[in-house]
Amino acid sequence: MELGLIGLGKMGGNMRERIRRAGHTVIGYDRNPDVSDVGSLEELVSSLKGPRVVWVMVPAGAATQSTVDELAALLEPGDVVVDGGNSRWTDDEKHAVELGLKDIGFVDCGVSGGVWGLKNGYALMYGGTEENVAKVQPIFDALKPEGDFGAVHAGKVGAGHFAKMVHNGIEYAMMQAYAEGWELLEAADSVTDVREIFRSWQEGTVIRSWLLDLAVNALDEDEHLEQLRGYAADSGEGRWTVEAAIDKSVPLPAITASLFARFSSRQEDSPQMKMIAALRNQFGGHAVEKNSK
């Protein structure tokens, strides 16, 4: 099968390689000419035989919208566009309508696997009609992990990215729990080897997971994480998860708390904590630390 792939960064570049290893032809385009197979989107589309399948792996929002707009002008009826980036599910619905006006199919696909995907395969969650999904199925089969699991037709257009969004929300909460446990262990005078405690949890415990394995990897590289600054960004999907929960009146206390914990990581001198310190001093005479500036 032939595939056009737009966006050859950390994820896209490895995905191109994995698909090629499965015996498919991939023509990739990227703004970086050092990694691109062709010089333009026009050249990419003209290099593919119809019906074409073009997979988009660019940042969500404006970059994805402009790419979809360009493809709408270049592709033909019966072709299919796959958005494998981290787009919001509501954008998928919009893109499906826009492309549908020209009889171009659309499939959204949440992709998880990170830098390990080339070796282990990518977990895939995709949404769209049975007809359009079938046109992409050989590529899904090439990208997914070996075995019976790791890929799912989640439902209608938007369902793939919605599922990936919830996946990332769960990931936020799991990482926060590991992080809080690690900090508490580090703070205990009686505990002498936090790294080996984490390592011991990798077998036989109910909290063993790939994230725990990665935590042990990180502690092997930097036992007390002294080389890192306590700052954590968020990709946007955590926010969308909380917003969707509000819209649907679904309580998500753990995921919501983990998102707000990331916000607090960006404050070297938290204004909220200043107010809490001031109030504790006012009502209880608790000591406060003065700003050195």
From TrEMBL:
InterPro entries: 6-PGluconate_DH-like_C_sf (IPR008927), 6DGDH_YqeC (IPR004849), 6PGD_dom2 (IPR013328), 6PGDH_C (IPR006114), 6PGDH_NADP-bd (IPR006115), 6PGdom_BS (IPR006184), NAD(P)-bd_dom_sf (IPR036291), Pgluconate_DH (IPR006183). SMART domains: 6PGD (SM01350). Gene3D superfamilies: N-(1-d-carboxylethyl)-l-norvaline Dehydrogenase, domain 2, NAD(P)-binding Rossmann-like Domain. It comes from the Bacteria. Residues 160-293 form the 6-phosphogluconate dehydrogenase C-terminal domain. Keywords: Gluconate utilization, Oxidoreductase. This is Decarboxylating 6-phosphogluconate dehydrogenase. It comes from Streptomyces evansiae.
